[in-house]
Amino acid sequence: MRNYEVAFIAAPTLAPEELDAFIAQMQAVVEGKNGRVVKVDNWGKKSLAYKIKKFRDGYYVILTVEADGAIIAELERRFRVADYVIRFLSVRIDEDLKRSEKMKIARQRKSGSKPVPAPAPPAGEPEAEPPAAPIA
Amino acid sequence: MPAPKRFSVKRKRVCKFCAEKITYIDFKDGKLLSHFIPERGKILPRRISGACSVHQRQLSEAIKRARHMAILPFVAD
Q1: With a threshold of 0.95, does the pTM exceed it?
Q2: CATH number (domain holding residue B27)
């Protein structure tokens, strides 16, 4: 299972209830295939930076999903079929987040015992380590 | 006669993202990204943005994603 961020823009002509129904449908698709929807982020209506299909604004929805490639493919297929979805983008985020965590840890090591507001490092322990150990 | 010594102003530029400890540049954060696109909508080059190579790469990727999602313009007038 991988983590993805699936974002799409729905046409502004869509009724809010219809949008909710569509989001629920997408959630059902993910969950029906043993995926998990971690988060649904509905930005509401937002103006677009440029016109898409002659629309100037649209509903932004971002789904954070724990799924595998087949589920994402299915979601994207549905986005293509639904003509009120005017734009979509799915991004795999697990590797980026992993790297992000790694960078945070590396930085903590570098700064030695300096307290860094991050996932609780055991206090006092970094001092014992030599600072020149960037192998994370 | 030796050539006049050129004084280059050595200002230590620190990558904004390193300084602020941002480890993942999110394409959804249009406000952050908009600092790195001048009026024309282009991606600010590294020599001006001051970003380190790791972050500049992340930044450009994030900007491109944001453009696709109409969060940022491809060309601004």
Answers
A1: no
A2: 4.10.640.10
